[in-house]
Design brief:
The protein has 3 helices and no strands. It has helices spanning 2-30, 36-80, 82-107. Helix 2 (36-80) crosses helix 3. The radius of gyration is 22 Å and the shape is elongated.
Length: 108
């Protein structure tokens, strides 16, 4: 399940990066343009945005399904071994606290 989640995350990231790069290039071309050429570039930019939104909308149900299955798996783990879940949670809290303290020390 982790491999699938990682692949899905990479796909989403790739789609977003592609969208950003495309729109940046189009907007760069558009900044000095006027008239019909500018309108064509705007149309292309909107088409790119709409295409990315459609692709992300197609991925969204799978992400929701994966999140639901992950939540069910986590709930099963907590029910099966509650003390281990508490210990893992405590370790995460301590790690976040240490990282926050280290980062605060670097800022001062």
């Amino acid at each position: 399940m982790r491999n699938r989640a990682a692949a899905l995350g990479e796909e989403i990231q790739g789609n977003l990066e592609e969208l950003i790069e495309s729109v940046e290039a189009l907007l760069d071309d558009l900044k000095d343009q006027r008239g019909e050429a500018a309108e064509k570039l705007r149309t292309r930019a909107w088409a790119t945005v709409k295409s990315a939104r459609r692709r992300l909308a197609g991925i969204r149900p799978e992400v929701g399904d994966l999140a639901a299955r992950t939540l069910r798996g986590t709930a099963k783990f907590v029910r099966r071994d509650p003390w281990r879940a508490v210990a893992i949670g405590a370790l995460i809290v301590v790690a976040v606290g240490v990282l926050a303290n280290v980062s605060r020390g670097e800022d001062e």
